[in-house]
Amino acid sequence: MHKVAVVGMGYSGAILVERLKNLTPALKVDVYDPTGSTGSGQAYQRDNLSNLVNRPAGLMYLREYGDFKQWLSESPVASPKSYQPRPVFGSFIEETLKSSLRAYSAIQYRRERVIGISTEQGGYSLITTSGKCIGYNAVVLATGNPEPADIYRLKGTERYINNPFPTTKLGDIRSGRIGVLGNQLSAIDVALTLLDAHPDNHVTMLTRNSKIPNYSEHYHPRPLKVLTESNLKQRLLGADSVLKTVQAMFDEELGAHGIQVRIEALMRDHTQASVAREAIYSVFSSTNLIVPVIWNHLSERDRKIFIRRYRNAWRQLRVPIPKENWIKIQQHIQLGRLACKTGLADISFDENQFVVRGRGFQDAFSDLVNATGAGDVMEGSLYKTLRASGMCVQHQYGGIDVCFDDCRVINEKGPTNIFAIGAPTVGVFYAVSNIDVLQMQAEIIYKTLSSLSA
What we know:
This protein has 14 helices and 19 strands. The chain has helices at 11-20, 67-73, 86-103, 185-197, 229-236, 242-256, 263-268, 277-286, 290-297, 300-318, 323-334, 381-388, 426-429, 435-453; strands spanning 3-7, 28-32, 107-110, 114-120, 123-128, 131-136, 138-141, 160-161, 178-181, 203-207, 215-216, 321-322, 338-342, 344-350, 353-358, 361-365, 367-370, 408-411, 414-420. The strands form 5 sheets. The chain has a 6-stranded mixed β-sheet with strand order 3-2-1-7-19-18, covered by helices on one side. The termini are close together.
């Protein structure tokens, strides 16, 4: 193996390239990204500073724990706050990665869009908008999060925005009737941007059933005492109900840290985390790498039960926001500038306005912004092409099918030397939106490519 292509240069592409540079100059790496991103991607691009990362700065990193915090300490303009703006973390990634690209000439950046992949002479060729690039022994799909799903088929409608990022583009909206789809991390970034943009703006966040997220303050990962990978595998072996066993182990883990509340109670009412907020989120942050292992051990029956009964509650509990933004949201609600409505059922565009219907309400909005979070990569043109050509197989729980052990993409004939990281792997790894899982996947792919290069 002497030549690898990385498709995408957001955070997941950046952490992989930072590892692959150790295999150069014997290994040549071509990076493809049409946006010109050098590591920040959509999540950490230049944007409003009110968009905060929902993870303490000490737990944000590119190469190793502490590198972002060290960078902050050396920056004359950085804020000492625990929760940093997304664009600040993006600047750190870009600065670090540009240094690597300058120092390692075997890593080449191509500002081109990849629209397909083909097999050729035992390797791979990338088809781009400008032609064909041949001779790759392996390809890594690090394409990042796709834009939100256009559930109500409103794309192309005037005053409808399906992808709100960067939120700076929302600054010209002036209205007392702005609807925002969603009420989680993305929606809160959007709502705060709109409310800060003009004092006469009023926003209503619309969801089917979720509530405003809980908030977190300072927390630090704790060593797990019960939910270790070895203990998990041992306990799940032969268990009558994996879900019930996992639930019992979560309760035991919380109890081992002196937290007197059960996981079921927390999912039923996420505000109960206030009884031991720092301890609870410290424990949960330590389970980031365990959740994919649990998902991988669930039977199809248990997965369907989890999706139907627990997925929304788990997501609601597990994705808190910084207290600073939570306070702002509460203040806007009290001032009457922000409302949150659940029970959303349908949206139509009629007489130059968006008519929204839900349980017990019907409202009309002049502007509508979709901030429901990442959609499914299979809606993107690249993955539609790969699927149609037999280069990948769609996974029933989202994204494409990959091997859990090494992130190899599985096509109709089996595993390949195409790899995937992040959003494309959501069906197999379940939790791919936190940087611990992305770092784990990058390390797995790096070690596999390293062994193939030996």
